[in-house]
């Protein structure tokens, strides 16, 4: 009944719907719920320790035998630039004073774990059906080891050039991430700050990627309901990856401030910002984004920018404010619905199939 079954058959799933692997909000319970409902559940690993990853993977394997996607970041761990860190701390100085924070206190860690040998060993142990990457692909030897586990390999592309690059290196499918998508841009060819202003939207990107590669394409960015799913298929996609819509689900571990902000979001209230991590990501506008950027070259390299901001964020959140929190969201948050992740997956599929019949 679906016009393109390539992703369904490739991953062994019932519906061509992938739950976006959103690091922070998504854990085993959401991945399991989506998988049981017929979609591809995803577990992001970037903010987890190896022990936490193992624990979440064990929960998943105990609760479902359905296909699962394990997601990793592929950034290069930055070298700490003491001068830049000091300048960033100085830039945040007024906020430290406002909240009574000691400006000389040690900077908390702001880590995102890049894919490495230790994480590859977890893939080899648990053998997820799908392994996805963000910010490109890992080095060749690691990628070969992942492929030997039998996993299907996918990664995000924000341009046709990136999609072709990924296909040439053996990706089984490609996620075409449009500018509308929430969270971090998957940009990996070129300086992210040089290309964010020219990144194509989903409607323009998907058909161009479809024309440029032979592997199936997964549309991502601004897709939150059946209309977006049907549109993605009309553009040549074989599946969709949905993120923000799943943040409305009770399984999403987001703060109360984030949930309230999403529930009241409008189409023109998001922007790309690097103040939270040092790398461009789309989120709902708040005070710190307006006052510092939202894009600023002063922020330390990814993911270090979040360290000095963390004490301010903690103080503000303790007062019930999300003014200094990363409220990640795509541009179609207003289409979100409050329901459990499994129910949302089934409803999206049913509504899309109904529209496809017309």
Q: Summarize model confidence as the mean pLDDT.
A: 96
State the low-pLDDT regions, or none: none
Shape by Cα distribution: globular
Can you count the helices?
A: 15
Report the radius of gyration as a whole number of Å. 20 Å
Order of neighbouring strands in the sheet with most strands: 1-9-8-6-5-4-3-2
Query: Whole-Å distance between the termini?
Result: 12 Å
Q: What is the percentage of strand-forming residues?
A: 5-15%
Give the proportion of residues in helices. 40-55%
> What's the helix-strand series?
HEHEHEHHHEHEHEEHHEHEHEEHHH
Largest sheet: 8 strands, parallel
Derived structural class:
alpha/beta
- Total strands: the figure is 11
Describe this structure in words.
The chain is of the alpha/beta class and 358 residues long. Helix content is 40%, strand content 13%. The protein contains 15 helices and eleven strands. It has an eight-stranded parallel β-sheet with strand order 1-9-8-6-5-4-3-2. A three-stranded antiparallel β-sheet has the order 7-11-10, with no helix packed on it.
